[in-house]
Amino acid sequence: xxxxxxxxxxxxxxxxxxxxxxxxxxSPQNPIKNTLCYVSDKKYxxxxxxxxxxxxxxxxxxxxxxxxxxxxxDNHKIIFAxxxxxxxxxxxxxxxxxxxxxxxxxxxSFGSNFSHGVGVIxxxxxxxxxxxxxxxxxxxxxxxxxxxxxxxGPGTVVGSEGFGNVIDDNQKWKHIAHLGKxxxxxxxxxxxxxxxxxxxxxxTIIFSGVIIDNQVHIAHNVQIGxxxxxxxxxxxxxxxxxGKRNMIxxxxxxxxxxxxxxxxxxxxxxxxxxxxLDPGIYTGILPITKHALWKRIALWITKLDKIxxxxxxxxx
Length: 316
Known about the structure:
The chain has 5 helices and 32 strands. By secondary structure, it is α/β, with parallel strands linked by helices. The strands form 5 sheets. It has a 10-stranded mixed beta sheet, with no helix packed on it. It starts with a helix and ends in a 5-residue tail after the last helix. The longest helix is centred in the N-terminal third of the chain and has 12 residues, at about 75-85. Among the domains are: about 5-85, 3-Layer(aba) Sandwich (Udp-n-acetylmuramoylalanyl-d-glutamate--2,6- Diaminopimelate Ligase, Chain: A, domain 1); about 290-315, no CATH class.
């Protein structure tokens, strides 16, 4: 699409070459030539943005950007949500292959020793490596890429639409279409009834050697480092980057945009609310209480060592 046509469809202002061809949408972390890049904050400005076709941002942010073509709006979050739907593509309806008893879409490819259960649905442009085993009632959404020696348990959904939403001026939720994909490396084991969302613009990536228990949710844009183990009922929110060889206990909750370094162990039922940048064992467990009280308790807990030292109390 041309920049001017996108601006008209979104009913917003544009600057620059109206005939600039836009092939899709990319993120400032991974800007792509001739795409429209969404820059929501000055902290995302980098020289790589000079290669993109145009940028969506506010007028204030646009002053610092190294390009000439813009879509401008002070309500850019809502505009971004609308923009993603312009470039979203629907997968064709998978059809039952009588030879394999598999519901599959177009351009599906797989390597040797592929096995699957009953009721498996695979959408368009999915690529599987060698020795892939898929359990009953698994759904693999469009453009997913899976490596060699991968097993996926019954009921798991890979590449589902992520939980990305913005609220408009009428206090109504508007969904962001997710244009990325899921990429899974080699020697990965995924349990039953897991949900792995595709990325918003970039990809959700599970690197080689990862093992995942049952009923785990991995949100959009998450990256799971090599040889990490994740126990049951873990929820990892969007855009987290989990290091290599992490061990995440059951029922752990990790909020969005968290980074963990390599060789981190997180105790079961912990809530991870800040980056874990040193290797080691982490535990964060407190009884549930009113939020205001919880904040006061947490403040004092972090100062206990200083209080003990100040009072001259002998450490146990």
